[in-house]
Amino acid sequence: MVTSRDVARLAGVSQMTVSRVLQGSTKVAAGTRDRVLAAMRESGYQPNAAARTMRTRRTATIGVVVADITNPFYPQLLEAVGRALGEAGQRMVLWNAPDSGGTSALEALDEGTVDGLLFTTATETSPGLADAVERGQPIALLHRGLDGLDCDQVTTDNVAGGRAVADYLVGTGHTRIGFLAGPDLPATARHRERGFRDRLAELGHPLADPLVARGGFSHDVARSATRDLLSRQDPPTAVFCANDLTALGAVDGAVSLGKRVPADVWVVGYDDIAMTSWDSYDLTTVRQPIADMSRAAVRLLLARIDDRDRPARVEEFPCELVVRGSTAGTPQPSAVDT
Amino acid sequence: MVTSRDVARLAGVSQMTVSRVLQGSTKVAAGTRDRVLAAMRESGYQPNAAARTMRTRRTATIGVVVADITNPFYPQLLEAVGRALGEAGQRMVLWNAPDSGGTSALEALDEGTVDGLLFTTATETSPGLADAVERGQPIALLHRGLDGLDCDQVTTDNVAGGRAVADYLVGTGHTRIGFLAGPDLPATARHRERGFRDRLAELGHPLADPLVARGGFSHDVARSATRDLLSRQDPPTAVFCANDLTALGAVDGAVSLGKRVPADVWVVGYDDIAMTSWDSYDLTTVRQPIADMSRAAVRLLLARIDDRDRPARVEEFPCELVVRGSTAGTPQPSAVDT
To answer: In what residue span(s) does the HTH lacI-type domain sit (chains A, B) (predicted)?
Structure first.
């Protein structure tokens, strides 16, 4: 039977350090932690998860819940979260929860196989989420916030992002503007729409209902909605899409009709996923600072795990309009100052 | 203290059924399982993971290891695996292991928080993998196989896929053919290259070294390599890429030089990710049957968990050339029959 003493000897560290690594302490340098873990594997040391959890109450593992990993935004966000967790000496496990909304992850938290959870796609209908927060479980929201839920939340100012796009499009002379709204539930989609809609109205060019398409966050739905919009007698001259995936669908809808972007129609997305900078799309979009957001969320969650009684914090990051080739004008001061 | 008896009463099932759900038995209908899980949550029942694992030795949770979720192929594969696991009454947890190669997942398996592991991106250097297989841990490989590793493996015939592309390009008249090879380690990349290279040689048009670019599986590297190829005095008339992500990079490299695909250069990818069918790319590629492969891998892994002594099986699925707009010819019988 291999003991932690053997591991310590093999790794050339004290038994206390081995114990700290097992407890997921952030006081161990990454290099030392790697050496201890390597020694554990090499020696065949098998800490008993159950016994360890009971003893230390820490697994150094954080669960992350995501609703749709086939939307390329989420793999990028998860990569950033994984990096932030790694920097903090924590491991990441993922739950992709298209239907169940993270029920399995909440079970794992209750069972103690993870120390805390980051929800990236929470909505008001996420089953069990509000209940778990109320019971004091360490849970933080990243990307999608939830009004009225008393837990740590890291988001971007999606209202300001929507407003910035309205300013940009009206400031460059557009008046017939289309909008591909996202689904109703996510706060991100609702806030982007509110900012965009309110600012357009303030600028004297309120959104026209027939130029608004409502649907899911999918490429296919967006492509088909854009084909409908562009086939109208009075097609929009610019289309704003509530996320990048749908903006790529909008570009492809235009391409499928033989239209050119931006000569025939401008397209603007939201998120700044890697693909938007690829030559075939070269998409104007609104950038979320996902590396900074991820680090902030990890920091808040780890602080919460250490102290469940600290007051919940909401951190909202600014976002930034990134102008590329899918639009043909530079941002201008808009007609109306606010 | 809520007991499993309370859960059974609330769900309207027998205590045996509750126990079966806890054990991850496949004998419980999905609807019943959902009802029991809902009752557990509603009643606040907290099975002790440790005690439960010791009692039943089953968590009904399978870990899946992936190396790069930002390559869109993997989210699609994970979605298919998640669906196959759901059909089998199993939960999925994911490890994204760009550096550590699944060490954390292997630890979770040793500790009993998952019942088995599916590796989707195994290579000969995956740390601890061969050792864990040797110790009899339930591990199956999906997508990337490993010669000489005695475990269940589900792959596609990547050699045949590479050969099919060679037949297609030579059969449509190409003789100056470029190749963007993948990294050296993954069996998928090596087998695709071997099939493509051998078949081109058999057909009398061996690959010319200067037309082969070797690099990682990234869009940026592929874009830049393609720009180099197409800037030559004698540019290739067609480029085969070892996966779709790099083929999208090759198209963008051509676009960035003002070249048209397929008028100036044909591009062929491999995998058939969703994006290849989008209008802006419309990419000819080789399709892997990921839904069938995922179900096969889940079936083999669950059988292995039930019986660790059964002989390991290797299942190899056929793949299929899908011709789209990035090439301009229909497949023809090639000049040389084999």
So the answer is: 2-56
Contact A204, A196 (CB under 8 A): no
| Residue contact A47–B78, C-beta within 8 A | no
Q: Measured between CA atoms, how close is A69 to chain B, in angstroms? A: 6
Asked if residue A211 has pLDDT above 70, the reply is yes
Of B37, B93, B219, the CB nearest to A103: B37
- At residue A151, φ and ψ (nearest 5 deg) are -150, 165
pLDDT surpassing 50 at residue B234? yes
Of the partner residues B37, B94, B256, the one whose CB lies closest to the CB of residue A96: B94
pLDDT of residue A125: 84
* Helix residue ranges per DSSP H, A126-271: 129-134, 158-171, 187-202, 219-230, 244-256
Domain-wise residue ranges, chain A: 4-56, 61-155+289-317, 158-288
Residue B321 to residue B38: CA distance in whole angstroms: 45
Taking only the tens place, the pLDDT of each residue in B216-228 is 789 999 999 999 9
Per-residue confidence (pLDDT) for residue B57, from 0 to 100: 65
- CA nearest A128 in B: which residue? B41
pLDDT in tens, B73-84: 999 999 999 999
Quickly name the fold that domain B4-56 has.
Answer: 434 Repressor (Amino-terminal Domain) (1.10.260)
The ipTM, to two decimals, is: 0.81
| CATH class name, domain B158-288 | alpha beta
CATH topology of domain B61-156+289-317: Rossmann fold (3.40.50)
Q: How much is the CA Rg of chain A, to the nearest whole Å?
A: 23
Residue A326 CB partners (closer than 8 Å, separation 6+): A247, A251, A261, A262, A266, A267, A268, A281, A282, A283, A284
Cα dihedral A8, A11, A17, A20, rounded to 10, equals: -100
The residue among B56, B85, B91, B115 with the most chain A CBs within 10 A of its CB, best to mutate, is: B91
| Fold of the A61-155+289-317 domain | Rossmann fold (3.40.50)
The pLDDT of residue B37 is 79
A152-156 and A139-142 strand pairing: parallel
